[in-house]
């Protein structure tokens, strides 16, 4: 029975778990020893467990959850089962970002225990007499606040550069919002991009970028460099896809409406190219195919071989584990305050299980993510959308702006806080990315509930969302066909197979456009007309009415698939102001000694609008920079 994704956990003592409090009162009655099975519905389908009991303990829990998302459901299995055994209780918090998986696992364990005759209600009851833990003080070279993608990259970089590191993570798992991101990674990659032909029309787009009015000297220099590059490309009679970090920087700058810091953007674009081999040196594998994620504007989007962003996260953790005593991760540990002495940040005061954790460090790195899950902050800083009250988000529930608030208390300056990115592809129930079948902007259409297109699907993300918000009910359908999903086992960017999504009702399907329209509940005549018109555009028989230029295959191969989506908060572009060396600036523009920042907690890189696929490389580029410079600062102090 337990053959797939089976995790076995044994006695807490064997796991080296300490601080086990008093056991629930139910154990005074004892258990009936034996193995007991239970089942429940998880996020991806049925979850089956086998619980082993002795007379007075839950000894082990075997879990079979073959359809739970890799990197999310797996982590929930380990965290939940670990906690149940450690605490001998069912009064366990769900894992952030994996609520469905967590609740399914807990329900299956409860069903197994109930079949044994145990008092499940007593096991769910809250215990008020937990053991009081002593405060603790730690010393390290570098302390990293946040164990998402940026924080772990920073920690690896710091260790690489000879520093000892303590990482504080307020959640019971690492990963932050990174672990629930799709994993699209924009970076120039000449080797992989050689496999693709250059559309001659795109050359004119590049030339237009090089002839804009310069904002500053860096912008002018970058335009000149790209102009020389494209001239050299044309004179070589090359046919492969053209790209360069300078072009990436110009597109990112323009894509953010010139509101970003062009020096930070250049650092980002050059670093993104360099991080591909760096990640590969850590054991991360990339697919060879290069795509164009929605809102990316250019064919430079990589995808990891492992699902979502588990490739880099697994590699970071493996590296840090090999570092031994030089790297320590403290979960369920919330940073509360930066320690400042003589104007310098010298550590962090945190809280874990009600006790105080003081980390003394020569350098501190903020990697706490954005504030998309703090609706009060979202509403306070929004100056663009004007109606974000109660809107869902794709981010992990940990993205509550903690690091931004701590930085402000330390005197840090904030930039671009009003720039809040919405996506048009949120789940109607959760606001998350689950069920999103968007894979390739060149091969999809968006239609409203009338079965009509309303926007160019290769446009910027803010343009796409603005178009959706203009629709009467603010709902849209993403439509793909067998070109992207040739069989039911093909997965979206969130490791969900199209067959699984159809089975759980997240996606509807039809062998013909008429059948698809019926499943969607839209006018079949409208949808047929829409698809036929789109196919004439793909065939080159007419220009697209909405201006779409990234075109690949017609929508003409059944089965056809459609996923209902709504607007959702996706990224907060504003945050702590940093230098190109990831140093945090104060309100006077001076560097705060000992304080660095990376990832979504920072502002100034993406401007008014972040390009699709730019977020994950941002965490890696400035994670590396912050770790390297924090380690160097620690050595000097």
UniProtKB/TrEMBL annotation:
Domain FMN-binding: 42-116
Segments forming a coiled coil: none
Cofactor dependency: FMN; FAD
Pfam families the UniProt entry points to: FAD_binding_2 (PF00890), FMN_bind (PF04205)
Signal peptide region: 1-28
Keyword Cytoplasm: no
Cross-referenced SMART domains: FMN_bind
Protein name, per record: Urocanate reductase
Reactions catalysed according to its record: dihydrourocanate + A = urocanate + AH2
GO terms of molecular function: FMN binding; steroid dehydrogenase activity, acting on the CH-CH group of donors
Cofactor details (free text): Binds 1 or 2 FMN covalently per subunit.
E.C. no: 1.3.99.33
The protein's enzyme class: oxidoreductase
Keyword S-adenosyl-L-methionine set for record: no
Keywords recorded for this protein, A-Z: FAD, Flavoprotein, Oxidoreductase, Signal
Source organism (scientific name): Suicoccus acidiformans
GO cellular component: membrane
Similarity field: Belongs to the FAD-dependent oxidoreductase 2 family. FRD/SDH subfamily.
Domain of life: Bacteria
């Amino acid at each position: 029975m337990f053959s797939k994704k089976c995790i076995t956990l044994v006695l807490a003592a064997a796991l080296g778990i300490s601080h086990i409090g008093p056991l629930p009162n139910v154990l005074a009655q004892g258990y009936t020893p034996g193995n007991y099975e239970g089942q429940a519905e998880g996020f991806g389908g049925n979850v089956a467990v086998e619980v082993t009991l002795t007379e007075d303990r839950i000894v082990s829990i075997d879990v079979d959850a073959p359809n739970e998302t890799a990197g999310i459901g797996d982590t929930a299995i380990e965290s939940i089962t670990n906690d149940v055994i450690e605490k001998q209780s069912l009064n366990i918090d769900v894992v952030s970002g994996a609520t469905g998986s967590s609740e399914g696992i807990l329900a299956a364990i409860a069903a197994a225990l109930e079949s044994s005759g145990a008092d499940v209600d007593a096991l769910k009851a809250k215990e008020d007499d937990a053991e009081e833990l002593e405060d603790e003080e730690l010393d390290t070279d570098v302390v990293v606040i946040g164990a998402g993608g940026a924080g772990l990259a920073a920690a690896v970089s710091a260790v690489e550069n000879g520093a000892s590191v303590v990482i504080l993570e307020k959640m019971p798992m690492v990963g932050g919002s990174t672990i629930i991101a799709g994993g699209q990674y924009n970076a120039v990659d000449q080797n992989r991009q050689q496999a693709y032909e250059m559309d001659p029309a795109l050359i004119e787009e590049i030339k237009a970028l090089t002839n804009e009015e310069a904002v500053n000297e860096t912008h002018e220099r970058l335009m000149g460099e790209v102009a020389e590059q494209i001239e050299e490309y044309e004179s070589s009679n090359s046919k492969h896809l053209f790209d360069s970090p300078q072009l990436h920087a110009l597109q990112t700058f323009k894509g953010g409406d010139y509101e970003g810091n062009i020096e930070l953007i250049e650092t980002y674009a050059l670093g993104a190219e360099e991080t591909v081999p760096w990640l590969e040196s850590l054991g991360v594998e990339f697919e060879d195919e290069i795509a164009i994620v929605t809102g990316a504007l250019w064919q430079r989007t990589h995808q990891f071989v492992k699902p979502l962003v588990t490739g880099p996260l697994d590699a970071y953790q493996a590296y840090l584990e090999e570092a031994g005593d030089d790297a320590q991760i403290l979960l369920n540990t919330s940073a509360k305050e930066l320690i400042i002495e003589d104007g310098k940040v010298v550590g962090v005061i945190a809280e874990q299980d009600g006790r105080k954790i003081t980390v003394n460090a020569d350098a501190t790195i903020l990697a706490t993510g954005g504030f998309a899950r703090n609706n009060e902050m979202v509403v306070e800083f929004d100056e663009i959308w004007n109606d974000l009250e109660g809107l869902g988000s794709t981010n992990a529930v940990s993205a509550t702006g903690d690091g931004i608030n701590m930085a402000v208390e330390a005197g840090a300056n904030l930039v671009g806080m009003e720039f809040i990115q919405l996506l048009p592809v949120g789940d109607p129930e959760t606001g998350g990315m689950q069920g999103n079948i968007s894979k390739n902007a060149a091969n999809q259409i968006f239609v409203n509930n009338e079965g009509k297109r309303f926007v160019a699907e290769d446009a910027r993300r803010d343009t796409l969302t603005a178009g959706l918000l203009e629709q009467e009910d603010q709902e849209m359908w993403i439509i793909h066909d067998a070109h992207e999903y040739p069989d039911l086992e093909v997965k979206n960017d969130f490791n969900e197979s199209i067959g699984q999504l159809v089975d759980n009702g997240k996606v509807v399907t039809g062998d013909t456009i008429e059948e698809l329209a019926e499943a969607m509940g839209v006018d079949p005549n409208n949808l047929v007309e829409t698809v036929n018109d789109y196919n004439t555009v793909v065939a080159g028989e007419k220009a697209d009415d909405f201006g779409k230029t990234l075109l690949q295959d017609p929508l003409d191969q059944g089965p056809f698939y459609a996923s209902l989506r709504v607007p959702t908060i996706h990224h907060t572009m504003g945050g702590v102001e940093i230098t190109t060396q990831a140093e945090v600036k104060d309100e006077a523009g001076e560097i705060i000694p000992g304080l660095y920042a990376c990832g979504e907690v920072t502002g100034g890189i993406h401007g008014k609008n972040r390009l699709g696929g730019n977020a994950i490389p941002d965490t890696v580029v400035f994670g590396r920079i912050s770790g390297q410079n924090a380690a160097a600062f620690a050595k000097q102090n």
